[in-house]
Amino acid sequence: MLSLLLQTQKYDKNFKLLDQKAYIAQSFVINFLHALYTRMSGVSSGSSTHGYILLYSPQGYGDSQLFARSTTGFDGDTLGILVGSNYDPTSWNQSDMDTIINHGTDTGELEYFGGNATDVTYDGDDAYFDMERIFRNSSGSTVTVKEFGLQGFVTTSAQALYARDSFSDAGDWAVVDDGEYLKVTYRIKITV
Q1: How many helices and strands, by DSSP H and E, does the chain display?
Q2: Is 152:163 a contact under the CB 8 Å cutoff?
Q3: What is the pLDDT of residues 32-51, one digit of tens each?
Q4: Which of 49, 55, 131, 183 has its C-alpha lying 20 to 30 A from 114's C-alpha?
């Protein structure tokens, strides 16, 4: 069985853990299926070849990248783990985040730091790896995250959404005050 897990952790400015939440994500969207199909069949699915997940440091934070052919023309808030402020339900054919929270330090923005992927872990009947990213609020006001996504390359010049989770219950939102950090982790796991 293939599953996707989502964890959020909020830290203060000294990186002391303030809050954490874990969810069973239900959010793979059609582009994930296209990517899997393309990799397994060697045949394009749809109008272009899908299949590059990118974990990327935005400009100004270095050039750390994994699973990428190119970063030309992309910023940190267009690839990798993304966050947004809308909680409309996810549909299977969703191709974009609803309302992206932009990378920056203006009101309503978060700074997107680089992404990371762990090695594959084998644990009994499970095998998994984690993709994670850290965000910092330097906007001077509170930023509320209600949606999370995983976006990668469709081709070397275009991106696609592979997963999106949204939460309508305020208790599930990540409320990030000025000076705080948010760490988001997606775990892709198979169980036999």
Answers
A1: 1, 14
A2: no
A3: 777 777 767 666 555 444 44
A4: 49
